[in-house]
Write a structure and sequence with these properties.
The structure is a single chain. The protein is of the alpha/beta class and about 250 residues long. The chain has a single domain, classed as Rossmann fold, CATH 3.40.50.300. It has 7 helices and 10 strands.
């Protein structure tokens, strides 16, 4: 994919965050700027404690930066949405515009696979279905489950799924409300290497097909073969490393 021809979907400009640690002030993020285009996977790597997950929470309206601008560009209304919001407005933006894939799926054991997705859609309607909303949601859920390789498993309980299948449900659920942005935080940490590779390829495939802007955080550079761009975070700063150099590092390791 040539991301330069695609519009920017998520823009982080000059993001900085500091925290008080006893009598000292510690810098978590230092003047971070990053644009992610529609249909692009940007891999973000770095050691534990480098600030990767903190940046994701800011992009997902889960935390506020001290400085900087975070903007999401809506595909439907062609509008710029300021993500520096809190409370109910932040929740509304997440429901309608941002999908988040956390390391732990946190799927609801009482619900079937299909119901996991339906619940997410209903949240988007603030607990009430719009006219024809249930039928539309069922169709959307079935299409997504087929796209992630779970056709035929719609009525299974979570306890009946493997770890890899649960990870696929996690991805499908994050896409249920047709977000512009997909934020992925270490989704394969608990999976074996083969299953982890399959889940990562799935995320890259749906990113390109559904034209979402994906920020994929991992400590395992080997999971990012096929990413459109890879950047490193070291001590709260982005290092815009070339894809080739990072790929060579993986091969050498």
């Amino acid at each position: 994919m040539n991301s330069t021809k695609a519009p920017v979907a998520l823009s982080l400009e000059n993001i900085s965050l500091k925290v008080q640690d006893g009598n000292t002030t510690r810098t978590i993020l230092n003047d971070i700027s990053l644009d992610i285009h529609a249909g692009e996977v940007v891999g973000l790597v770095g050691p534990s404690g480098s600030g990767k997950s903190t940046l994701l929470t800011i992009a997902g309206c889960l935390k506020q930066a001290d400085e900087g601008i975070v903007t999401l560009y809506s595909r439907n209304k062609n509008e710029a949405i300021d993500l520096r919001v809190k409370g109910a407005e932040a929740a509304r933006v997440r429901r309608h515009h941002i999908g988040i894939v956390f390391q732990q799926p946190n799927l609801l054991p009482a619900l079937t696979v299909k119901q996991q997705l339906m619940a997410m859609r209903r949240l988007g309607h603030v607990f009430r279905w719009a006219e024809g909303g249930r039928r539309e949601a069922e169709k959307r859920a079935e299409e997504l489950l087929e796209s992630v390789g779970l056709k035929g498993l719609e009525n299974r309980r979570i306890s009946q799924l493997s770890g890899g299948q649960q990870a696929r449900v996690n991805v499908a659920r994050a896409l249920m409300n047709n977000p512009e942005v997909l934020l992925v935080d270490e989704p394969t940490a608990a999976l074996d290497q083969k299953t982890a590779g399959a889940v990562t390829r799935l995320i890259m495939d749906v990113t390109h097909k559904m034209r979402v802007a994906t920020l994929y955080i991992t400590h395992d550079l080997g999971q990012l073969h096929g990413a459109d761009r890879i950047v490193e975070m070291i001590d709260g700063q982005l290092q815009h490393s070339s894809h080739e150099r990072l790929t060579d590092a993986v091969t050498a390791g």
